[in-house]
Amino acid sequence: MEQRMTGTLYGVSVGPGDPELLTLQAVRLLRQCPVLAAPQTASGQMLALDIARRALGSELDGKTILAAMEKVSLADELMERIRAEHEAEEEEHHHHHHDGEHDADEVFDSIGIETINKYTKEELTNAFEECLKQVDLNMEYFKDRFPYSCTKGLKYPIIDNIEWTDGFWTGMLWLAYEYTNDKKYKELADRNIESFLHRVENRIELDHHDLGFLYSLSCVSGYKLTKNEHAKKAALLAADKLMERWQEKGQFLQAWGPKDSPEHYRFIIDCMLNIPLLYWASEVTGDNHYADAATKHFTTSCKYVIRDDASAYHTFYMDPVTGGPSHGATRQGYSDDSSWARGQAWGIYGIPLNVRYTKNTEYVDLYKGMANYFLNRLPEDNICYWDLIFTDDPEQSRDSSAAAIAVCGMLEMDQWIKEEDPSKKVYQKACDNITRSLIQNYTNNDHKPGDPILYHGVYSWHSGKGVDEGNIWGDYYYMEALMRQIKQWDPYW
Ligand code: GLY
After folding, report:
1. Catalytic residue list contains 210
2. Using CA positions, which residue lies closest to atom 1 of ligand 1?
3. Global confidence as pTM
4. Which among 46, 219, 305, 462 is least buried, having the fewest CB atoms inside 10 angstroms?
5. Could you tell me which of 337, 349, 285 has the C-alpha nearest to residue 312?
6. Residue 273 Cα, ligand 1 centroid: separation in angstroms?
């Protein structure tokens, strides 16, 4: 696997356990290093930050601090060694840093997201009701057809059911139905289900892996909520269609293109959201071959499409001859070695959905790495740029949809993070802060037919599609994120 982190790593510590005892050499190294890595535990991070602050004062502001917990925690290994050398001192130090919650607060501040109060239920329901106003207008506007993936000039073009994104609209109707119990939403969603059944029976524009995005939100949801048998049938056919993309030798589901073509022998991080359809199919049918493929694809993804520093490639090529790893490459990100914000968010949400079905919590640390990488690169208003290579560049667009997806992922993972884990509070606050910023700065409150709910998304920067526009998955995930914070919600995924 490619190693993207290059440079020299210096271990800086103080002996014995007192930040005042830094050497001049240590201060010089801290000044020179562009990136400071802190160890994994909140108390370790506190010490590291304390040291760095004393040594650098306000110079610290210009530095990237890896609040550790990224995939390969070099800082942890170093600290372990140092700890072994100063065991006694370390023990003493731990006494001063036992308040996990307090530590987590400060770590959180250190990554640039200020502490705020949780949203009230009323504020969240007001925001959801704003969404309903737009859904109502768009039901009249789209009728039995569908919005195009993104807006053009902030208005959704109307299309037939042919895109990879059409399930998001139906998913929004189901969310509206769950919230209001108003049957007008169910009636249109039911008609959409007939359209999705027709689409899969006739294999219309389905030669790609996005079957989960399409069928989990439109049909698995419809079946879970209303026992609609056509929805069940359509979703199972979609799962079979997705299984056709299984590559046995490489152990992955191929994203695009014909299966026998070597130049298409790759998978993408987005597929993390397509495999829940397979888990569901196994649950419903009792046939494990779907879930098996899902778990194998997930394992291959975690191994290769996520780099050692817990950032994600967008896509990863496997070697068609050996079935082993070849190389990462982007399609929608800024560059092959940057981290496309939505790709990072697909990982942040994909891992907990996998945990939900498999109950295998060994991936919680990988999730934390991905979430930390994402949170560490947020600009001041907490909404990521479209690629995480940008952290402060007014020329670049945000991707509000990636922010909403990441919130859903963090809320889904919350149930697997223990109360005593200081990072639990970090992610909860991140959800509050991102949600607040979306509500206050990124939503449309002047509803007109065909408008998006969420502004400032990016669909595909390189092809100039939907740059600084609305997109339908942004609208969907924003509603899901609000719903999850309003009530206990059973995912459609
Ligand atoms: N799954 C394609 C995208 O996120 O744009």
Report:
1. yes
2. 270
3. 0.80
4. 462
5. 337
6. 10
- Which atom of ligand 1 lies closest to the CA of 343? 4
State how far the Cα of 65 lies from the Cα of 151, in Å rounded to an integer: 36
Per the CB < 8 A criterion, the answer to whether 297 and 248 are in contact is no
Q: How many A from CA of 270 to the centre of ligand 1?
A: 6
User: 71 and 371 in contact (C-beta within 8 Å)?
Assistant: no
Nearest CA to ligand 1 atom 5: 459
Q: Give the helix ranges, DSSP H, for 111-153.
A: 121-142
Q: Which two tokens stand for residue 387?
A: 């690629």
- Residue with token string 């993972």: 413
Whole-number Å distance between alpha carbons of 133 and 143 = 15
**Active site residue: 76, 166, 190, 210, which one?**
210
Residue closest via CA to ligand 1's atom 2 equals 270
**What angle in degrees, to the nearest 10, is found between the helix axes of 183-201 and 229-243?**
40
Lookup result for tokens 């200081």: 422
- The residues near 395 (Cβ < 8 Å, ≥ 6 apart) are none
Q: At what angle do helices 289-304 and 276-285 cross, to 10 degrees?
A: 160
How far apart, in Å, are the Cα atoms of 376 and each of 8, 453, 493?
Answer: 21, 27, 27
Ordered DSSP codes for 309-352: TS-B-SEEEE-TTT-SEEEEE-SSSSSTTS-BHHHHHHHHHHHH
pLDDT tens for the chain, 493 residues: list them: 333 444 566 777 666 566 777 878 888 888 877 667 766 555 555 566 667 777 777 676 656 565 544 444 555 555 555 556 556 555 655 554 333 333 333 444 443 334 445 678 899 999 999 999 999 999 999 999 999 999 999 999 999 999 999 999 999 999 999 999 999 999 999 999 999 999 999 999 999 999 999 999 999 999 999 999 999 999 999 999 999 999 999 999 999 999 999 999 999 999 999 999 999 999 999 999 999 999 999 999 999 999 999 999 999 999 999 999 999 999 999 999 999 999 999 999 999 999 999 999 999 999 999 999 999 999 999 999 999 999 999 999 999 999 999 999 999 999 999 999 988 998 999 999 999 999 999 999 999 999 999 999 999 999 999 999 999 999 999 999 999 999 999 999 9
Angle ∠(213,221,171) on CA atoms, nearest 5: 55
Positive or negative CA dihedral for 294, 366, 168, 162?
negative
Q: What is the distance between the alpha carbons of residues 375 and 47, in angstroms, rounded to a whole number?
A: 21
Which residues surround ligand 1 with Cβ inside 6 Å? 270, 332, 342
Classified as helix, coil or strand, 161 is coil
Say whether 384 sits in a helix, a strand or coil: coil
- How long is the chain? 493
| Measured distance CA(147)–CA(289) in Å, rounded | 34
